[in-house]
Structures are given as structure tokens and as C-alpha cells.
Amino acid sequence: MSNARFISSRRRFLVGSALAAGSWLVPGLRNAVWAAGSDAPEKPQVRVGFIPLTDCAPIVMAALKGFDKKHGISLQPSKEASWAAVRDKLASGELDAAHALYSMIYGLHLGIAGKQQAMANLMTLNNNGQAITLSNQLRTQGVIDGSSLQQRVAASEPGTYRFAHTFPTGTHAMWLYYWLASVGIDPFRDLRLLVVPPPQMVMNMKIGNLSGFCVGEPWNQRAISENVGYTAVTSQQVWPDHPEKILATRAQWVNDNPHTARALTAAVLEAARWIDASDDNRRETARAIAGRAWLNTQADTITGRMLGQYQDGLGHRWQDAHGMQFFRDGEVSFPWLSDGMWFLTQLQRWGLLKQQPDYHAVARAINRTEVYRQAASAVGNIVVPQSEMRRSTLIDGRVWDGSNPAAWATDFAIKRRGEPA
């Protein structure tokens, strides 16, 4: 079945399911612009930060395809050097909003990723599309998967192997830790952990500084293309259809600019829908974001995995059923409370939080479902779920639905308490 026919069939199924379950389909005129009179955005120009990763695509395409103008704003993407820079510029107000790591924003809201500041998640930008890359040096030592890595680590002195993620409370740290623990490796006890900005991962592995890393695309594919490393596991193998980057801002910014927040969310939401509408749109997106102003890499490095066409550098190729997705009839974009709560359980598990938080209250404060619903109405024809919780099964067979987060956070054999080293 072609991608377009699959999307059409899936849309009919979801709409029917949503109506049967009591969800609602937001009506709207196809070319309506909700940016007039008292609904006009307070800020005509919106500066939005991004890191050069494939999943910044909805922000870039919202600007390049004119979806921002349709909703009464001029989106100004700002390329940033690291997630720490994104954090600092968001907190200071130098950026109005940003393409951001989901759990980084939760950490900032709780004061464990920098000076505490109330934050807001306007929408999820993508599901899936990250990976854990191991070095070719490990491959020569017989390491090809989690089991063989565990054996090698167990036979070595603690700290022998150096693994990197992109931010201490970020999503890549959480995927890395979860996968390592699932194969019997304690990341804090057994490894040396480093923080490296995404564009610097491949070079650090090339010069021998890293045994492994977890990062977003295109840097895992770049490691394969440059014969530096290979994909050991994708993030969607850890959690199929997991939340990844979000459209983040400060809570005060939303309070001060409610119409701008709605317009920004609507523009990016419309771009996400456009990207997912066809493989041709995905190819066009890959060519656009490959440019020097954005990712500054070859389009071919982006395109394959963006289309779900994977190869791991060990001779295996497959069409991934859970490749990077940006919209999927609104399932991707909705800021599910249970997604935010899951990251809180992992911050608790790894000792980054000193005590159990009020999981639901924190997620409710950050994830602005009311802004998303307004934006979905402005865009039109968006299925918005009635429930704000969803159910998922992770790599170790554990089922997450947000129903008992405190118990879920503590029910792991490998976990950490107290201040991390």
C-alpha cells in the first residue's frame, strides 16, 4: 500500500474511532486564518531556537512553507550550538520558544536542569527517530548488541567505556539509561558518562573519545556513512512511538502572549501535518533542512531514516514501522500528560529528583493541552483525543499508562538514589 493510501486509510480509522470513543474532530475552514481583531498574535515576530537535528523539521518547514504567515506571525528560526544554549536562551527570554528535549524542559521546570523556571510544552514535535551508536572499536571486540556489550562491560573495570548523551536530564540520557539497564548494565556504576552536543558526537567517536552515544538523526546515520560506528538499537525499539522533541517555551511567555502561543502552535502543527502527508513531502523536507542554514549535511544522510529505511552498519536493512513521525493524524502532536509523567519517573529512577513529585500535577502544569486544542481548532480537521493519557509497552515488556507512576518509578532492579556523580 502506498504511503498516501495508508495515511488516508489510517485517517478514516482514527476519525471513526475518535467519534466512537467520544474524542472530537476540530472543525475549521481549510484556508481560514485565525489572526484578526482581538485574536491577533501579540508578537508579530517569534524567535524559535533549534538544534541541527532531523526532528527540527516542523519548525523549519513552518517558516519555509509559509504556515507561520497564514497564522499571523513571522517565525524566525535560530540555530543553536547545544541544548545548554537552548536552555539558557529560553530561560533568559532571548528565545521565545524552541525545539527542545522533552525531559530537559521538565528538568528546568523542576530546577534540576538549571535555575528553576516554570515552563510550557505547546506540542510534541516528533515520535521516534533517535538511536544508540556503538564504535567500530567495540565491534572488533565482538560487541554487536546489548548482550555482548554487557559481557564486555562486565569483564572490564568500571568506567573503561565512555558513553555520551546530549543533556543530563534530556531524552537521550533517558533512552541510553533505559536500554543499558534493560541489558543489565548500570550506566552510573559501570560506565563513564559524558555530555556532548549532537553535531560533535561523530567526531568524538572518530578520534576515540567515545565508545557509544545516544543522539538524534542524522548523526547516527552519519556515524555509519563515515565508517565510525553502527546502530546497536533505535529509540523506537526502546519505546515504540515514544515522545521526543517538543515545542517549548516559558509559562510566563504563554501567559503574556496567549494568541501568539496559539498561532505558533498552529503553524508548527500545520507543518507537521504537511510533512507526514506524503513521502514526497518528506523528501522535500530532507532536501530543505540539509542546507547550510539548518543541518549542513547531505540530504541522503537524512532522507533514508526519515522515510523509515534503516540499515545498521552491520549488514541489516529494514523498513521501520516506527520511524520518525511528525503528525500521524495528531497522535504525535498532542501533548499527552502520560508522556511527561513517564519522564518524571525516569528522573526519579536515576536519582535526579530527591523525592517523588506530584506526577500528574507537574505534567498538567507544563503540557498546555488547552493551547493545543485552540491551535488544532485554528488549523481545522485535527483529531484531538478525549483522554490525556496513553498506553505503551517498552523494550523490557513493562506497560506504561500513567496510572501508578510512583510505583512504576521505583520498580526497577537497576536504579539510583541521591545526587548523581
TrEMBL record:
Task: Name a GO CC annotation attached to this entry.
Answer: endomembrane system
Q: What keywords appear on the UniProt entry?
A: Cell inner membrane, Cell membrane, Membrane, Signal, Transport
Top-level taxon: Bacteria
One Pfam family this sequence matches: NMT1_2
Q: Which SUPFAM superfamilies match?
A: Periplasmic binding protein-like II
Q: Which N-terminal stretch is annotated as signal sequence? A: 1-20
Query: Cellular location of this protein?
Result: Endomembrane system
Report the PROSITE patterns cross-referenced here. TAT
The similarity annotation says:
Belongs to the CmpA/NrtA family.
Q: Which PANTHER family match?
A: ALIPHATIC SULFONATES-BINDING PROTEIN-RELATED, NITRATE_NITRITE BINDING PROTEIN NRTA
Q: What is this protein called?
A: Nitrate/bicarbonate ABC transporter substrate-binding protein
Organism of derivation? Mixta theicola
